[in-house]
């Protein structure tokens, strides 16, 4: 059954899931926040996990950690979940 939701149609590999955990943990460290808070910011408050991190995994995971963190922080600011 087809649904328009990216969340419903996304097939996630173990590598993509591990990458998402990597992003959440490293953002938490960089921002000085609890990882559960970062997860909420990336899912409930902005949907960046499903609209950016998972769909762009193939490209993002080839970048270095600093680039990924800077990119995600900038996107979080644009989405209004980070000041």
Can you tell me about this structure?
The protein has 83 residues and is an all-alpha fold. The chain has six helices and no strands. α2 crosses α3 and α2 packs across α6. It is globular.
Number of domains: 1
- Please estimate the helix content: 55-70%
Q: Count of helical segments?
A: 6
- Work out the radius of gyration: 12 Å
Distance between the termini: 39 Å
Could you list the spans in which at least 5 consecutive residues all have pLDDT below 50? 1-5
The H/E string reads HHHHHH
- What oligomeric state do the depicted chains represent? single chain
Shape: globular
Q: Could you describe the largest sheet, including whether it forms a barrel? A: none
Overall pLDDT metric: 90
In terms of structural class, how would the helical and strand content be classed? mainly alpha
Strand coverage percent: under 5%
Count of β-strands: 0
Task: Please describe the topology of this protein.
Blueprint: H1 6-9, H2 14-31, H3 35-43, H4 48-53, H5 57-60, H6 65-78
Helix pairs in contact: 2-3, 2-6
Quick structural summary:
The chain is mainly α and 83 residues long.
Name the descriptors.
83 residues, mainly alpha, globular, disordered N terminus
